[in-house]
């Protein structure tokens, strides 16, 4: 009898041992192995799902960050533009105020110059009249007593000079 023709006793013992090992594997080991494989599969799928969820959350947060960054840039540009506009407006107001003050100073100076000119002209006319009278007294060798006539003569002279200067202007 050889290995291809076993004895019936050996065959029955081998079948019982095989059945016992098979039953032990089927009853205890295969369910544990199955549970372990399923747990691993669930862990892998759960980790994958969690990683996809985390990745999606990261993409959402990144998009929000980009949107906030873009909004902040727009806000900064708007603030810069508003500051530039305010600065330009302030410069225009300061220039207008400076122009107004300059015009007031120029007008005041012109009025003061005109008043000073009129005053100086009156003083000079009196001085010229006095000098002319003194000169006439020296030339004639006697005092001029008719002050009214001397004043009229000087006024006529000044009127003639004023008319000549008006005609030349």
TrEMBL record:
Positions in coiled-coil regions: 55-82
Molecular functions (GO terms): proton-transporting ATP synthase activity, rotational mechanism; proton-transporting ATPase activity, rotational mechanism
GO cellular component, one term: plasma membrane
Keyword set, alphabetical order: ATP synthesis, Cell membrane, CF(0), Coiled coil, Hydrogen ion transport, Ion transport, Membrane, Transmembrane, Transmembrane helix, Transport
Highest taxon of the lineage: Bacteria
Chief location of this protein within or outside the cell: membrane
Bilayer-spanning residue ranges: 12-30
SUPFAM superfamilies: F1F0 ATP synthase subunit B, membrane domain
Compartments it resides in: Cell membrane
Membrane topology: Single-pass membrane protein
InterPro entries in the cross-refs: ATP_synth_B-like_membr_sf, ATP_synth_b/b'su_bac/chlpt, ATP_synth_F0_bsu_bac, ATP_synthase_B_chain
CDD domains reported for this sequence: ATP-synt_Fo_b
Described purpose of this protein according to its UniProt entry: Component of the F(0) channel, it forms part of the peripheral stalk, linking F(1) to F(0). F(1)F(0) ATP synthase produces ATP from ADP in the presence of a proton or sodium gradient. F-type ATPases consist of two structural domains, F(1) containing the extramembraneous catalytic core and F(0) containing the membrane proton channel, linked together by a central stalk and a peripheral stalk. During catalysis, ATP synthesis in the catalytic domain of F(1) is coupled via a rotary mechanism of the central stalk subunits to proton translocation.
Self-association and partners: F-type ATPases have 2 components, F(1) - the catalytic core - and F(0) - the membrane proton channel. F(1) has five subunits: alpha(3), beta(3), gamma(1), delta(1), epsilon(1). F(0) has three main subunits: a(1), b(2) and c(10-14). The alpha and beta chains form an alternating ring which encloses part of the gamma chain. F(1) is attached to F(0) by a central stalk formed by the gamma and epsilon chains, while a peripheral stalk is formed by the delta and b chains.
Family per record: Belongs to the ATPase B chain family.
UniProt-recorded name of the protein: ATP synthase subunit b
Naturally occurring in which organism (per UniProt): Streptomyces alanosinicus
């Amino acid at each position: 009898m050889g290995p291809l023709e076993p004895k019936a006793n050996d065959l029955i013992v081998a079948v019982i041992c095989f059945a016992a090992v098979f039953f032990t594997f089927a009853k205890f080991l295969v369910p544990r192995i199955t549970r372990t494989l399923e747990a691993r599969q669930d862990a892998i799928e759960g980790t994958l799902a969690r990683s996809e969820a985390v990745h999606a959350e990261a993409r959402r947060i990144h998009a929000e960050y980009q949107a906030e960054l873009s909004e902040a840039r727009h806000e900064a540009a708007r603030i810069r533009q508003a500051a530039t506009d305010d600065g330009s407006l302030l410069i225009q107001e300061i220039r207008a105020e400076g122009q107004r003050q300059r015009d007031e100073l120029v007008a005041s100076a012109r009025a003061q110059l005109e008043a000073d000119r009129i005053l100086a002209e009156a003083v000079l006319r009196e001085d010229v009249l006095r000098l002319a009278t003194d000169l006439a007294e020296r030339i004639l060798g006697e005092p001029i007593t008719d002050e009214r006539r001397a004043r009229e003569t000087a006024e006529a002279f000044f009127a003639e000079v004023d008319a000549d200067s008006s005609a030349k202007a």
